[in-house]
Give the backbone structure.
Amino acid sequence: MARQRTRARTRTDRSTVSRRRFIGTATAATGAVLGLCGPASASGDDAFPPKDNTEWGDPVTLGNGEARTFTTVAPSGRPASHGLLIERAALEGLPSADDLARSGDDAYTDKYGPTGESVVIHHRWSQAFFVPIPATAATPMTFLGLNWNPDGHPPAGVWTEPHFDVHFHMCSPETVDAIAGPAAPTYDLPERYVPEGYARGPVVDERVITDMGEHLIDPTVPELNGGTFTNTLIWGVADPDDDGTGVLTFVEPMLTRAYVRDHVGIDRRPIAQPETDAGAGVYPTTYAVRDVPDRDAVAVTIADFEPVSGGN
């Protein structure tokens, strides 16, 4: 029997217009027919993303290539998946931690822009991007936060491999932009809001991370048990309404560059769900990493959105 998931309060925050120019396409209305507005796709039924029902965001420059968001739409008009397409060329020529430290505010001046911003996150240098997700009206997803971490980030020996953080956010860019850390959370987090099998980080005064929020972890993943870090899913928490209660606000695949570089086929995994959701709507229950040979790229997607009933 499926668990009952009820609504405690609305968690999305789309009403405010970003204070800076936000690259990408405007959000499409719910149920709108979405046309192809990205690069040409391979012909045939097996092309991915499907060319006839995919809308693309503007690209950002990453390494020697580009990355760009996309949304595919089901016949009903509801988004079937949100994703990030990373060209394999983007996996080469990426800035090192020393490059980011030297550039400071000179070379990477704006996380809202096409070249990102050089910032210290998790105590390590990171190249950060805030990128729109096309056609988010029928899901809570609002934008994508992309981070390239050349030296990884703490915990030491766990996530210190060079990797990408891919945040599918449910709050507005300016709400996330205002999150400062590392810091201790100032809100309560009801256990029913914590996805099954997940737990809060052990270091309380560093749970809230700049431009992200609090990170919930799955303590059974290989790298936390003496294994190798390749591909891990994080759930994120914040208190966007500042009412003293934390809610789920982002889903974050973390993928090492080595894993993305060597990836073939499709690696599809479930997204753990909480006993009670904090907002009504439709939410992703699976994520996948997919080789896209026709585009010489790899796609990171969230999909299988399930409706959530309202109530307390």
